[in-house]
């Protein structure tokens, strides 16, 4: 199977397949340095986006590099993530046609404001945010109560395996 990076209507650049992919196929591994969560707090202070991926029950964070970092979020994805033996794989949830952009639901968590992670996937049932449903509910509850998270330094949200 061949993967290429090119312009995406979802966000900047995306990862596309050049050949058909069968449902259940491990498409690409999410790779990069593995860090402790506390080491990520200041890592991207000067950047609007990160490629941080929480794994092993949030005991480790992958600072994403490589092809998988270009797989964009969608509320109607064709892939999902799966943590297998200390590795995070992006796996096809259905058959994927050549030239199709690969996507998965980022399920962002540990946010401060729903507006921090808007979704631009264009799906019919788009949530409008890349946060997972539980995080959306938590952030809405905090907003209704007039309570905003106020850590000493703003944390960047992490992705979570589905």
What would you note in describing this structure?
Keywords: Chromosome, Methyltransferase, S-adenosyl-L-methionine, Transferase. GO terms for molecular function: methyltransferase activity. Pfam families: SET. Its main location: cytoplasm. Residues 142-162 are annotated as: Disordered. Strand 8 and strand 9 (87-92) form a beta hairpin. The strands form 4 sheets. A 4-stranded mixed β-sheet has the order 4-6-5-11, with no helix packed on it. Strands 3-9-8 form a 3-stranded antiparallel β-sheet, with no helix packed on it. Helices cover 7% and strands 27% of the residues. It has one domain (3-160): Beta-clip-like (Beta Complex). With 162 residues, it is mainly beta.
What brief labels describe this structure?
mainly beta; S-adenosyl-L-methionine; 11 strands; SET_dom; 1 helix; transferase; three-stranded antiparallel beta sheet; 7% helix; Beta-clip-like; Post-SET_dom; SET domain-containing protein-lysine N-methyltransferase
